[in-house]
Amino acid sequence: MRTVSPLDVRRALGAILDAASAGERFLIERDHKPLAMLVSVEDGRRLDPDPRERQRRALAALDRLVAHGKRMAELHPSTLSAVDAVRLDRARDDLVESDA
Questions:
Q1: In what order do the strands lie in the sheet with 33-38?
Q2: Which residue, 16, 24, 78, 99, has fewest beta-carbon neighbours within 10 Å?
Q3: Distance CA 27, CA 17 (A)
Q4: Contact, 62 vs 79, CB < 8 A?
Q5: Would the pTM of this model clear 0.70, i.e. be above it?
Q6: Each residue's pLDDT tens digit, 33-67
Q7: What is the number of other CB atoms lying within 10 angstroms of the CB of residue 75?
Q8: Distance CA 24, CA 13 (A)
Q9: Could you count the other beta carbons within 10 Å of the beta carbon of residue 5?
Q10: 9: Cβ contacts below 8 Å, ≥ 6 apart
Q11: How wide is the angle at C-alpha 42 spanned by C-alphas 39 and 46, nearest 5°?
């Protein structure tokens, strides 16, 4: 498996796609953190052959996220709306970035 950056993908997309379609696998990383994998269509179909099963798993994951959000809301009630909470969180992120 070959590791590439998003910049590598942008610079050599055609060659990378040709290699992937021939069976080579690519791990796309940013700052040494894996973001995605690029594999041939055949390999991708073997990884996830049933679209209904994939949809069932995605919906189950969303249900778990909703349940987790409800538990967090019960544990940490807030008078903030969701929009205000996101704005507050972004403001905190901006402060951290400006301190760096």
A1: 2-4, 26-30, 33-38
A2: 99
A3: 13
A4: no
A5: no
A6: 999 999 999 898 888 778 888 889 899 999 999 99
A7: 7
A8: 14
A9: 14
A10: 16, 26, 28, 38
A11: 95
